[in-house]
Specification:
Blueprint lengths: L1 H7 L3 H15 L4 H40 L5 E3 L2 H10 L6 H14 L5 E3 L6 H14 L2 H30 L4 E2 L5 H15 L12 H8 L5 H15 L4 H43 L6 E3 L9 H20 L5 E2 L7 H5 L10 H32 L10 E2 L7 H52 L1
Parallel strand pairs: 1-5, 1-6, 2-4, 3-4
Helix pairs in contact: 2-3, 3-11, 4-6, 5-7, 6-7, 6-14, 6-15, 7-15, 8-14, 10-11, 10-12, 12-14
């Protein structure tokens, strides 16, 4: 267990190249090609983290200035996902999430109950988070373990369902995102999009980056949009002219640099993805294999970044205007792209739909983050997290995600019975998605062919 934790502590930029290299060799890739692929993936993640760091360092102070400028006061501070992940892995339960995540994945793959091979091991902190909250709530260690397992089952089911949407919109072949923050939002976007499609006039509104650029010319360019949004945030933050201009160039830089870093990372993943496709075709005809990756690959899309930057000031004002909310958004404001990046494919890249849908999603999420704040604080104390002067803490990632509510509320109300029932329901979903549904599709295709012959 100690070695495994040491391995994970190396970080994604070191851990992923090693895993990708080993994975590529298993798939039959030549050692030289596998080594280069792993190194390029690592370099891509370094680049992505550098750009995200730029976003955090520029947007974080602007958000704090905006809060101070308008005199907003709320008693629960958003400490952000780095703190949430540290708290999750710091509990006595959290370190089990990694071996459980790998074990559940291998078991499901063995029985053909998932198509996702998850190499994004570090992000198992999302399931450690819910498990730790349940342990803080019930003091039942094994119920916390069961929560982790059931949450893992749900993420693999979501990843299988979303893979086709991800490929169609982002163009990532044989790649999916079993990500605890990003995946759940897509399943909220689906009914929202159904409603949007039935609103007269609104359903005809094209607002994807390409359509916006056609209508607005240079003003619709994603880089210019980033600069303009930076100016807006700078004005709301009360910055002086130099501060506004610096922030605008920094947000514009993020819009340009992040997609290029993602493209670099994909350069390393493409040969591995192709090798995975060939490997499965030869040994498991009729089956697909998806590589489970960090949703950081998706946040560089112009529709994601433009929508996220627009949602930032909306989020701050919602925090104050929503009655009953106690969470002051701060550290996770720069991580809003992760909350909405899988809503964007469902909304077909429509920025207006994403801003509306994402704002509603985060608005409801404030109440979840407020509700779990006492448990979040207890888990932080149990993991010896340094809270400073704060007496109540929470987070938008994963505190404002609906799965967090489900996995904490069910044990609170129904204890073991509820969690076992939920696990069986999700297991049936995996069986349907990977066994029953493909069989029905084959039968339908065979019937269709027969009718065509006749």
């Amino acid at each position: 267990m100690g070695f495994l934790q040491w391995f994970v502590d190396l970080g994604a930029s070191v851990l992923l190249p090693i895993l990708i290299f080993i994975f590529a060799l298993v798939l039959g890739t030549k050692p030289g090609k596998a080594l280069r692929a792993g190194i390029i993936v690592g370099i891509g993640f370094v680049g992505i983290n550098l750009v995200i760091g730029l976003l955090v360092s520029s947007l974080g102070p602007a958000a704090q200035s905006m809060v101070d400028n308008f005199g907003f006061e709320l008693n629960t501070i958003d400490v952000g996902w780095p703190a949430a992940s540290a708290i999750s892995y710091g509990t006595s339960l959290g370190s089990l999430a990694i071996p459980l995540g790998v074990g559940v994945n291998l078991l499901l793959l063995t029985f053909g109950l998932t198509k996702t091979l998850n190499v994004d091991i570090w992000n198992f902190w999302h399931v450690a988070f819910t498990g730790s909250l349940v342990y803080a709530l019930t003091s039942d260690f094994w119920l916390g373990v069961l929560t982790i397992i059931v949450h893992l089952l749900l993420l693999y089911l979501m990843a299988d369902v979303l893979a086709k949407h991800i490929e169609k919109f982002y163009g990532f072949q044989n790649i999916t995102f079993p990500h605890g923050t990003s995946a759940p939002s897509a399943f909220v976007a689906m009914p929202m999009n159904w409603v949007f499609d039935r609103i007269p006039g609104f359903n005809k509104l094209e607002a994807d980056p390409e359509s916006i650029q056609k209508r607005l010319g240079i003003l619709g360019d994603s880089t210019i949009i980033g600069v303009l949004i930076g100016i807006l945030i700078g004005v709301l933050a009360g910055y002086d002219i130099p501060g506004i201009l610096q922030l605008s160039i920094q947000t514009g830089a993020v819009m340009v640099l992040l997609p290029r870093m993602v493209a670099l990372l994909m350069e390393g993943l493409i040969p591995v993805s192709e090798a995975a496709g060939e490997f499965v075709k030869k040994r498991f005809p009729g089956r697909d294999l998806y590589i489970g990756m960090d949703s950081a690959l998706a946040i560089g899309h112009p529709a994601v970044l433009s929508s996220a930057l627009l949602i930032v000031p909306i989020t701050i004002f919602m925090a104050v205007l929503l009655p009953g909310n106690s969470v002051l958004p701060f550290a996770d404001l720069a991580s809003i792209p992760f909350l909405i990046c899988l809503m964007v494919p469902i909304f077909r890249g429509n920025i207006i739909r994403t801003v509306i849908g994402g704002s509603i999603y985060i608005g409801v999420g404030f109440y979840i983050a407020t509700w779990i704040a006492p448990l979040f604080t207890d888990a932080a104390i149990a993991s010896n997290f340094e809270m400073g002067e704060n007496t109540s803490i929470s987070s938008l990632i994963d505190g404002a995600v609906w799965t967090t509510f489900i996995f904490v509320w069910i044990p609170k109300i129904l204890s073991w019975y509820g969690m076992i029932g939920l696990g069986l329901l999700i297991l049936f979903g995996l069986i349907y998605q990977n066994k029953i549904k493909p069989k029905r599709q084959k039968q339908t295709a065979a019937t269709g062919e027969g009718e065509d012959i006749k």
